[in-house]
Amino acid sequence: MAHRDSQSQTWCEEHFFDFIDKDRWPPNSLDLNVLDYHVWDAVGQQMRRDKVNNYETLREEIKKAVEFVPKKNVASSVDAWSRHIIKLSKNKGAYILSSSL
């Protein structure tokens, strides 16, 4: 996978001050997707679902809806996600109660 490639890892280490390398990143954790924290919900709220009748119209509606999601909301989602990743890393990947986030 490209994101686990040594060149990709090296580039990220050089360009992101708090980069978490592939060996410290928890494997296959669905709740670690930044889009799941807020973005998909916000996109879904902006979509005109009545216009979706096939894959192509779904893609188009998602593209249009993304334009209406406020950037500050995305930034807030990334901040929450970052805090979650840090806690997960400190907890050695063990389950974290949502109340402690």
What does the model show?
This protein has 4 helices and no strands. Helices cover 54% and strands 0% of the residues. It has a domain at 31-100. The model has no long low-confidence stretch (mean pLDDT 80). With 101 residues, it is mainly alpha-helical.
Would you summarize the structure shown here?
GO terms for molecular function: nucleic acid binding. The protein has 101 residues and is mainly α. It has helices at residues 6-15, 34-46, 55-66, 71-90.
Report the count of strand segments. Answer: 0
Order of helices and strands: HHHH
Our estimate of the beta-strand percent is under 5%
Radius of gyration: 17 Å
In the predicted model, the low-confidence regions spanning at least 5 consecutive residues are: none
Assembly of the depicted chains: single chain
Structural class designation: mainly alpha
Main β-sheet description: none
InterPro entries: RNaseH_sf
Organism: Didymodactylos carnosus
Protein name: Transposase
GO molecular function, one term: nucleic acid binding
